[in-house]
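Sample intake sheet
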Amino acid sequence: MPRQRRYRLAFLSSHPVQYHVPLLRRIAAEPDIELKVLYQSEGALHGHLDAGFKQIVRWDIPLLDGYEYEFLPAIGRRDLISAQRPLSYGLLSRLRRGRFDALLVNGYARWVNWQAMIAARAVGTKVLVRDEATADSTARPLSRRLANQFFFSLLSSVADAFLAVGTANREYYLANGVRRDRIFMFPYAVDIDFFARRAQEAAPRREQFRAELGLEPGRAVILYASKYERRKRPDDLLRAYERVCRAPGVKLPPYLLFVGSGEMEPELQQAVREKGLAEVRFLGFRNQTELPALFDLAEVLVLPSVHEAWGTIVQEAIAAGTAVIAAHQVGCTRDIVRQGVNGFVFTTGDIDALTAALHEIVVSPERARAMGAASRDVITRWSFREDIEGLRKALSILCGNRE
């Protein structure tokens, strides 16, 4: 009986990303895929200034365990991450020496990724491109859309396949002229087991946690957990929350927990003071291991963003078994938010619709719990398992099944 084909796969990324690492471990554990990750920068390994959070961020989960990796050499500083930096080198020699079947490039907006794709073509290595862009996340006038199609024609000349992280991302590729047979589903998945397990572990001490936060029992909890940026529109949530507190049928105002930090924090805090919204709390930045307890405590997580390519926080909340409300321009809503089943999707910027969705949750805790239970069912079909299937299909078609 012939042995199973073993694919050698290189993965290029600017730095270790907390959302990607669990998937990299899963890929590395597959018996038919030999993975090597090439990083340009250490990124947040030792803490870095996150422009969105406006503070030093150090992730509290291991970022380099469970897979083979290497940091590329660079000219000058390697801690500055932008479209041009770090100035990495040595890709061609590593691709040639590694004799990889395929190179997976994370994004196409950075010059080093184009350098890598061209180098891969030069040594006969197939190129897979993964990106998160959607029509909503990259809204452009007609002239720019036409230019974008030309850009994709160039990209298609160096890329052999495109890995779509979701439905909206797949449609974006198709709209820009990428052939259907060159697109493979590679869902943007999170570590479902991690968030589900941590939320279950937090449940027995839910009321203790509530007391630690100074929250009275018997009131609904609305959670926002993201950067305080304009495009995230946390002020939309605050406006809708104020209306809900005055709405018929709401006997006790719910709590609104803002978790995160960013440029809009002083503005949001001032609005809370001026409006006398005593049940709003600002809890600051919370790390990965702290989020599941907050998901468990909350009736619903809300993300009102505009131009949000995916919305990982929504996915993490769903994995923890929490109901969600998200704006329609949040990319993941097409795939993992079922209207009225595990949450609500509203038109970005529509405060009336957001208010109505919040009201549904606040006046019916039973509905919120049922939606949370439904979330666990929805997310099981959007997991690392589907990622491996999509990746394996792409490798099989591009590289063949031979021994």
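Comment: The chain has a mean pLDDT of 91. The chain has 15 helices and 17 strands.
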